[in-house]
Design a protein that fits this description.
Layout: E1 2-7, H1 11-22, E2 27-33, H2 39-46, E3 50-54, E4 56-57, E5 60-61, H3 63-72, E6 77-82, H4 87-95, E7 100-103, H5 111-121, E8 124-125, H6 127-138, H7 148-158, H8 163-170, H9 174-187, H10 193-202
Parallel strand pairs: 1-2, 1-3, 3-6, 6-7, 7-8
Antiparallel strand pairs: 4-5
Helix pairs in contact: 4-6, 7-8, 7-10, 8-9
Length: 207
């Protein structure tokens, strides 16, 4: 059973997602709120697998809240849910630790599988954003985004390997591994190793 929460200031959105969950045997809506200030208490009380988090609340971005939640509740996959999509918002969501980004015009019939994908793989980024808009953001084709060695390193990070594990596997020094990771973080203006994994997965460069 996939347990999820919704935090969105539109009643029609919350009601629609509640109705959707009732039609799916493996989905359960365990909580919802219209207030961004309530989200931490909601997660603490319901302990969901996934949080659908609206990007905008009365003109206020939820990105900083997303960052705080990923630190306080690392076990919860946060899926940004927004009517807006562009390369800068996608970059911000990756930096904030979001597990995915879904546009609100997504066909409702596809949302159950998106929730399953986030739970199963840990990531989901709308292909309309992860393709052309990522290329626009970073000025490169997806195949040029990482060198072969960099992609090997990111792949091993995704598997939970530390720098010493990666160094031994690739027959290079831990210092060299650290250098490559630092270079990738600086290139894409990211802060954490996990964000590199999110980015590579959103580009469909990792399985």
């Amino acid at each position: 059973m996939i347990r999820f929460c919704v935090v969105d200031d539109h009643q029609i959105v919350r009601d629609g997602l509640a109705a959707m969950a009732l039609r799916e045997e493996d989905l359960e809506l365990v909580g919802s709120s219209s207030l961004l200030a309530e989200v931490a208490d909601l997660l603490a009380g319901t302990k969901p697998d996934v949080l659908l988090l609206d990007l905008q609340f009365n003109g206020e971005s939820s990105m900083q809240t997303c960052l705080a939640l990923t630190q306080a509740f690392p076990e919860v996959k946060i899926l940004i849910f927004s009517a807006y999509g562009n390369s800068e918002l996608l970059r911000q969501s990756v930096q904030a630790g979001a597990a995915g980004y879904m546009l609100k015009d997504t066909d409702t019939s596809k949302i159950p599988e998106i929730l399953r994908e986030v739970t199963r793989s840990g990531h989901y980024f709308d292909s309309r954003l992860s393709g052309p808009l990522l290329r626009e953001s970073f000025g490169q084709s997806q195949s040029e985004a990482f060198t072969e060695r960099e992609l090997r390193i990111v792949s091993e990070i995704a598997r939970g390997s530390n720098n010493y594990d990666v160094a031994e596997l690739l027959n290079i020094s831990p210092h060299t591994v650290k250098f490559h990771i630092s270079a990738m973080l600086k290139r894409y203006k990211l802060q954490r190793r996990s964000e590199l994994v999110h980015l590579a997965m959103s580009m469909h460069l990792l399985d």
